[in-house]
Amino acid sequence: MRQSQISHDAALVPRQYLLPFVLVTLCFALWGFANDITNPMVKAFSKIFRMSVADGALVQVAFYGGYFAMAFPAAIFIRRYSYKAGVLMGLGLYAAGALLFFPARMAGVYGCFIAAYFIMTCGLSFLETSCNPYILAMGDERTATRRLNMAQCFNPCGSIIGMFVAMNYIQARLNPMGSEERGLLPPDEFEALKQSDLSILVSPYLLIGAVIVAMFFVIYFMDMPRSGDQGSDLHIMSTLRRLCHMPRYREGVVAQFFYVGAQIMCWTFIIQYGTRVFMAEGMTEQAAEVLSQRFNIAAMLLFICLRFVATWLMRWLRPATLLVIFGAMAIAFTAGVIVFQNRMGIYCLVAVSGCMSLMFPTIYGIALDGLGDDAKLGAAGLIMAILGGSVLPLIQAFVIDRGHVFGSFPATNASFVLTMLCFVVVAAYGVRMRRTSNA
């Protein structure tokens, strides 16, 4: 029986899977922390190294490029060994990348931080490629998408912590001197200021690296079940051919690419968007950045609340139906982000986060529904689609760097046209799945 058939009776998580479910769900929170402590770093690195927004966005290129590069190797590794081995490899690479921030600070070279981010996210790619299908396999197929939505509810909990740390222990403690003022400093004074700010920036990464090491040993010594985990050979080409001939999966990868791009654009450039609005009200650059981050946290809180609501609604409404509804609302609110040039635009951007709440796990669950053992390689394709978080924000950053378009219209506002188009693709996937399947 397919997961798309709504069931009120099947247990969401069977008792024998409860402890593994909790441990794997903690991993969701850990990579959520990494994602959302990183988004504000685009602005921070741009200021510390006196770079353009586009150069600062290379942080996201490295971050989400790691997801893309390691997804298929992760799938092969997991199939050869086990889900547990995949989780451990992911945690090991995550910890290594985070701890490499210390030598990167000593070198004081932007490229070293980019390399550390890449290694860290190779680990996150292993984690997501392992944990998402593992959660789907922990029980009845009829409750798989609900179960993944429940586990994913704790991903933004880690994100909230990451945002809080970024706001209170990085952004609020960095030297308030703006990029233009830094450009006027003598080289030796600029270097001293840069090293001071980098010391502040790397401390949270070193701490999370230590936490990840502890988590590694907890899972290493824990007896984890081998649910759906046969350790058989992976026939890549034949599996890829099957997957590419499945519209549900093929279109799901495309939808996931655009969804992740939209998510990262909203959560990264809310800082630039809010800073422009609040500085126009008379705030200093640093105060505007901190207030923008508070709105980012509010957006994440709404995201968490509506993900729980969406998980509950799936008891009665088909996942594809909810995807269409939330996608349409996201398009409408993004239009407000583009049109309004005051705080109303910020409020609309916060509302967009609520609309995004169910999109990632719902697309994931619909795309993998009924794939059986092919879901392991299928999961890798969906994780590779996270590359959208690397490519699309970079395009948006180039638009933002223009300052104004069409005369005096703020380029920051205009850049969210790209985000709106992403939500159009997501909503269209939901419509297609409602018409062509039982999702």
Can you offer a commentary on this structure?
This protein is mainly alpha-helical and 439 residues long. The chain has a single domain, classed as Growth Hormone, Chain: A, CATH 1.20.1250.20. 77% of the residues lie in helices and 1% in strands. It contains 21 helices and 2 strands. The chain has a two-stranded antiparallel ribbon with strand order 1-2. α13 packs parallel to α19 and α15 runs antiparallel to α21. The longest helix has 34 residues. It is globular. It starts with 17 loop residues before the first helix and ends with a helix. The N terminus is likely disordered.
Offer a quick outline of the entry.
The chain is 77% helix and 1% strand. It is mainly alpha-helical and 439 residues long.
Descriptors:
mainly alpha; Growth Hormone, Chain: A; globular; 2 strands; disordered N terminus; 439 residues; 77% helix; two-stranded antiparallel sheet; 21 helices; single chain
Number of domains: 1
CATH class: Mainly Alpha
Q: Helicity range of the residues?
A: over 70%
- If strands are numbered along the chain, what order do they take across the biggest sheet? 1-2
Q: According to CATH, what is the topology?
A: Growth Hormone, Chain: A
How many alpha or pi helices? 21
CATH architecture: Up-down Bundle
Number of strands: 2
Strand content: under 5%
Q: What structural class results from the helix and strand content?
A: mainly alpha
- State the order of secondary-structure elements, H for helix, E for strand: HHHHHHHHHHHHHHHHHHHEEHH
Q: What is the mean predicted local confidence, pLDDT?
A: 84
CATH H-tier superfamily? MFS general substrate transporter like domains
Tertiary shape: globular
Oligomer: single chain
Task: Please tell me how large the radius of gyration is.
Answer: 21 Å
Q: What does the main sheet amount to?
A: 2 strands, antiparallel
